[in-house]
Design brief:
Blueprint: E1 24-28, E2 34-36, E3 38-41, H1 58-63, E4 69-82, E5 95-97, H2 99-104, E6 106-114, H3 115-129, H4 137-145, E7 150-159, H5 168-180, E8 196-209, H6 211-216, H7 220-226, E9 232-234, H8 244-257, E10 270-273, H9 277-288, E11 294-297, E12 308-311, E13 314-321, E14 326-331, H10 342-350, E15 363-365, E16 376-379, H11 389-396, H12 398-401, E17 413-415, H13 416-429, H14 436-442, H15 446-465, H16 480-484, H17 487-493, H18 500-506, H19 523-529, H20 532-542, H21 545-555, E18 570-572, H22 576-589, E19 599-602, E20 607-612
Parallel strand pairs: 3-9, 3-10, 5-16, 10-11, 11-19
Antiparallel strand pairs: 1-2, 1-20, 4-7, 4-8, 5-6, 6-7, 12-13, 13-14, 15-18, 16-17
Helix pairs in contact: 3-4, 8-9, 11-14, 13-18, 15-20, 15-21
Length: 616
């Protein structure tokens, strides 16, 4: 069986058995106390449930302690600017990433995405791939942009756990400084003096265990073993990884390996705390398992459109830009999909969460099309040493690299498709003292090295991480070095450093921490995100032809799940908020024979206390 990271079923069992007769009382701010048989924590167990609201067991306190589990502060700001006019020699990309600013994790502007250009690009891709127009895709794209006078732009900021939290106001002040800073004009082309703030999202983000905790506990497997204790389970993103995919996969992991922790009686009263993606997905799963009495508590109002669809960290804002004849979804939270999402996407499609045929919330591609406008670019500042291999080669033989640059000046911003290769070349050969002539001979052969490392990473992942998603069901399945090593050192120590440029965009841009030297994020999280499925699809769909063939030869076969039509980077045409809105509608319509909703969401309801029997 060739799973390649797709998640096969194992018999390992975890969790504590459900104990009938124990009662859980929930007191609301305005309402009568309610008694339940089973409790699901789908909110942040650190901030969402302080001790005065729910007394935790000693094990729960240890697991969710801020000493063992850290987090970031994440802020996105949707801005409106006058349109930037592209020159004949320079087309501004859809998205730009500054790895230096992200690595600092001080709340600096580290990336932006033009929602307007994203929509124009997606329309260009549709027309090009459907054969509607034989015209050069750049002409189609520029024609669409010529119709608009403004661009909507989402700006990203991240504060690391070492820096301490910054308030929303502090980060907004910092963003305004960054947008006005002349030093940033080379990569942030918008006129801050004429910009206006449309919407802003500020949140705690990416709860993750420290390297020490992953090695020695508490860690993800301690959560698994504790599932069901006090008739309580946890499904918040902190149990695995900060993405909808990992929440979905973790719920499947619970169903397969902790089934003894769930009540046998399908009429048991179940309380779910939190109506973000975790709460909605576990309620969906419980309903599919046959439970008929599920109550979901949510402190916020039901945001169900048409201008905005919010659910936890999903923050979909609908923008009218009539010149493009579309309402554009601007995602300030949950955003992209990778090939690893395909099984979840297919499930959502099959069960109606993507809408009816003909009016579907489609999976659309943000991959680079041949000879099309640039989609993703990266800032080169501090990524290449002045006396390093890339700049040495650039000064003498710029045509070998083919990375642009004017009048001998190294390009301050580079197309990601080219950057991933030259960054890998830099990391492999820096410090070697090689001459420009020697480097010139080596560079054409580097694609083979890149391909070799790519195939070795895929095999390493399968061997040392296993095929269970979102992570192996037993800690012993994972090689200890994966826990104890940060991402950069992991890539370097295992011979994968040529892949660093690719991983900077594929991992760090999502807000999951730095891949640079000195990062405190364990390679365990990196391997959860960069699966063989995603990596292999990227190589075969978007890699150089020489790289593709070498990887295929090295692996010996094409996995049966490989689908060449799946984008490496995708988005939903109507946004993630539309998915959760459809799910809430399904909950409204699905009732018992007595006419009672199987899943009842109580919005704008604040819990004052959760009382569990004999908590120690």
């Amino acid at each position: 069986m060739n799973c390649f990271g797709l998640g096969c079923i194992f018999s390992t069992q975890h969790g504590q058995p459900f104990k009938p007769g124990r009662k859980i009382t929930i007191n609301e701010e305005d309402g009568e106390p309610q008694v339940y048989d089973f409790l699901v924590i789908a909110c942040d167990p650190q901030d969402g449930l302080p001790e005065e609201v729910m007394k935790k067991t000693d094990t729960e306190k240890k697991i969710f302690s801020p000493v063992s589990m850290k987090s970031f502060t994440f802020q996105t700001t949707l801005m409106k600017f006058p349109k930037v006019v592209d020159s004949e020699s320079q087309t501004n990309p859809v998205e730009v990433f500054n790895p230096v600013n992200l690595n600092k994790s001080e709340g600096l502007l580290h990336s932006y995405r033009s929602e307007t250009r994203k929509e124009a690009y997606q329309q260009t891709v549709r027309e090009t791939e459907l054969g509607k127009s034989p015209t050069d895709p750049n002409i189609i794209y520029q024609d669409k942009l010529s119709k608009v006078s403004h661009e909507y732009v989402t700006c990203y900021q991240l504060v690391g756990s070492e820096e301490g939290g910054k308030t929303q106001e502090q980060l907004w002040d910092l963003l305004q400084e960054q947008m006005r800073d002349e030093k940033n004009k080379e990569w942030f082309p918008y006129d801050a003096s004429k910009g206006s703030k449309i919407e802003q999202f500020h949140t705690k983000y990416f709860n993750h265990f420290t390297i020490e905790s992953l090695k020695n506990g508490p860690n993800n497997w301690d959560i698994l073993e504790n599932q069901g204790k006090k008739n309580t389970i946890y499904v918040h993103a902190s149990t695995a990884f900060e993405s909808v995919l990992h929440i979905y996969n973790y719920i499947e992991l619970l169903h397969q390996t902790c089934h003894q922790s769930f009540p046998d009686d399908k009429s048991s009263k179940i309380a779910v705390v939190g109506a973000g993606p975790s709460g909605l997905l576990i309620s969906r799963k419980l309903k599919s398992m046959g439970y008929t009495d599920i109550t979901v508590y949510e402190t916020k109002a039901n945001s169900n459109g048409p201008d905005a669809y919010y659910a936890g960290k999903t923050q979909t804002n609908m923008i009218e830009q009539s010149e493009l004849s579309y309402v554009i979804p601007a995602e300030l939270g949950t955003c992209y999909l990778s090939p690893s999402y395909q099984h979840m996407y297919n499930d959502f499609k099959k069960t109606g969460l993507l809408g009816p045929d003909g009016d579907e919330n489609e999976l659309i591609s943000l991959d680079q099309i041949e000879k099309g406008p640039f989609v993703k670019s990266i800032i080169t500042d501090q990524q290449f040493d002045n006396d390093g291999p890339v700049k040495t080669l650039f000064r003498e033989y710029p045509e070998t690299l083919d990375i642009g640059g004017h009048d001998g000046k190294f390009p301050p911003i580079m197309d990601f498709e080219k950057y991933q290769i030259v960054k890998g070349f830099e990391e492999v050969y820096k410090g070697g003292g090689l001459s420009a002539e020697e480097l010139k001979k080596l560079f054409p052969c580097f694609l083979k090295r890149f391909a070799c490392d790519a195939s070795e990473y895929i095999k390493y992942h399968i061997k040392h991480f296993g095929v269970r998603t979102p992570f192996p069901s037993t800690k012993g399945r994972v090689q200890n070095d994966i826990f104890s090593t940060n991402i950069y050192d992991f890539l370097k120590d295992n011979g994968f450093i040529s892949l660093l440029g690719l991983m900077q965009f594929g991992y760090s841009l999502q807000g999951y921490g730095s891949t640079g030297q000195g990062t405190t994020i364990s390679a365990f999280y990196f391997m959860m995100w960069v699966t063989p499925h995603t990596f292999f699809t990227f190589i075969l769909n978007k890699g150089h032809n020489e790289v593709k063939q070498f990887v295929l030869d090295a692996l010996g076969e094409t996995p049966d799940w490989f689908n060449k039509d799946v984008p490496v980077v995708g988005a939903l045409s109507k946004g993630w908020g539309n998915v959760w809105n459809n799910l809430k509608d399904q909950f409204e319509d699905d009732t018992t024979s007595e006419g009672k909703k199987k899943v009842n969401i109580k919005f704008e309801t604040r819990i004052t206390q959760i009382i569990r029997d004999k908590v120690k």
